[in-house]
């Protein structure tokens, strides 16, 4: 009887002490080491070069523009995407970043974000379309997307460094994985939300499934797709800042260096630049979404 009471007491007060702890840390370490040992050459030989090439090309294109011409261009983009107020805000915000002396870091950060978003769209859009076409595929993707979206960003950095060493590439790979889920989820959602009446009307006129997708479903789902693009851009920007820890440059490096040296001024300058860049990108993509053809007239500002 005493043994039973003691067992019940332990079951209530310390139930996990009755069992041996699962060696999950060891399993994960061994799995990652196995992947690194067997696939490091593949990742460095076939995954790293295209990412590096796109990154360098984007940085060369953006960095080659004179700052004044760049600011005029961002004003025109903001004006056409949303309104002249957004264009003026983008001009003033990025000009302020330049005045603070971190223009080159801004260009690096913008190049990192643009590269990550390009790969997120190139991979996420087809996967989102497949999810909208197949309930089984969407069910299989859901837990994977949950893991990608909820795993703490710092967790991605360790295997990225082990596979790609330090630098921009591992930071970009981690950013792409972290920022891709909204693109997939909202592409799937946007296409599924298109009214069946439009699809039936297109079928009645003899449209093929591909024509229905690109000429009916895709335009009508564009506001939702733009919301997914907006979220992908914001997540990419937050992740490239964290990726500065493993050698990715840009404004994140200003923040990280400021924290490392306890230089609060340097950290704040980098942080202000990140905030202003995020606001500019957010306003422009929201403006594009508001002007999308799939948005009802009463929903437009």
Order of helices and strands: HHHHHHHHHHHHH
Taking all Cα atoms into account, the compactness measure Rg is 24 Å
In percent, how much strand structure appears in the residues? under 5%
Number of strands: 0
The oligomeric state of the chains shown is: single chain
What is the percent of helical residues?
over 70%
Number of helices: 13
End-to-end Cα distance, whole Å, is 74 Å
The pLDDT mean sits at 86
Q: Label the overall shape.
A: globular
Largest sheet: none
- Poorly predicted regions: 297-301
Helix/strand class: mainly alpha
Write the layout of secondary structure elements.
Elements: H1 2-13, H2 24-63, H3 67-81, H4 84-99, H5 103-133, H6 135-150, H7 153-164, H8 168-179, H9 181-192, H10 196-204, H11 209-242, H12 251-260, H13 264-290
Helix pairs in contact: 2-5, 2-7, 2-8, 3-4, 4-13, 5-6, 5-8, 5-9, 5-11, 5-12, 6-9, 7-8, 8-11, 9-11, 10-11, 11-13, 12-13
Mind explaining what this structure looks like?
There is one protein chain. By secondary structure, the chain is an all-alpha fold. Helices cover 82% and strands 0% of the residues. It is built from 13 helices and no strands. It has helices at 2-13, 24-63, 67-81, 84-99, 103-133, 135-150, 153-164, 168-179, 181-192, 196-204, 209-242, 251-260, 264-290. Helix 5 packs across helix 9 (181-192), helix 5 packs antiparallel against helix 11 and helix 6 (135-150) runs antiparallel to helix 9 (181-192). The longest helix has 40 residues, at 24-63. The radius of gyration is 24 Å and the shape is globular. 37% of the residues are buried.
């Amino acid at each position: 009887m005493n043994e039973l009471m003691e067992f019940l007491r332990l079951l209530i007060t310390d139930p996990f002490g009755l069992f041996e702890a699962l060696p999950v840390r060891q399993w994960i370490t061994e799995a990652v080491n196995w992947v690194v040992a067997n696939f490091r050459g593949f990742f460095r030989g076939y995954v790293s070069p295209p990412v590096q090439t796109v990154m360098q090309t984007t940085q060369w294109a953006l960095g080659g523009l004179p700052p004044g011409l760049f600011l005029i261009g961002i004003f025109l983009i903001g004006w056409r995407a949303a309104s002249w107020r957004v264009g003026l805000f983008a001009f003033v915000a990025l000009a302020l970043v330049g005045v603070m002396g971190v223009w080159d870091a801004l260009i690096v950060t913008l190049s990192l974000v643009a590269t990550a978003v390009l790969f997120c769209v190139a991979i996420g859009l087809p996967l989102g379309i497949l999810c909208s076409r197949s309930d089984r595929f969407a069910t299989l993707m859901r837990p994977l997307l949950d893991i990608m979206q909820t795993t703490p960003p710092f967790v991605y950095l360790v295997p990225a460094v082990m596979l790609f060493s330090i630098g921009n590439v591992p930071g970009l790979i981690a950013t792409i994985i972290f920022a891709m889920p909204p693109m997939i989820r909202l592409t799937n959602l946007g296409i599924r939300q298109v009214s069946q009446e439009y699809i039936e009307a297109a079928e009645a006129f003899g449209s093929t499934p591909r024509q229905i997708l690109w000429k009916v479903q895709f335009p009508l789902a564009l506001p939702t797709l733009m919301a997914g693009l907006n979220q992908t851009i914001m997540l990419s920007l937050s992740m490239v800042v964290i990726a500065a820890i493993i050698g990715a440059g840009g404004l994140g490096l200003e923040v990280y260096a400021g924290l490392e040296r306890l230089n609060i001024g340097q950290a704040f300058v980098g942080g202000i630049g990140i905030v202003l860049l995020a606001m500019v990108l957010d306003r422009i993509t929201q403006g594009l979404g508001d002007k999308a053809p799939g948005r009802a007239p009463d929903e437009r500002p």
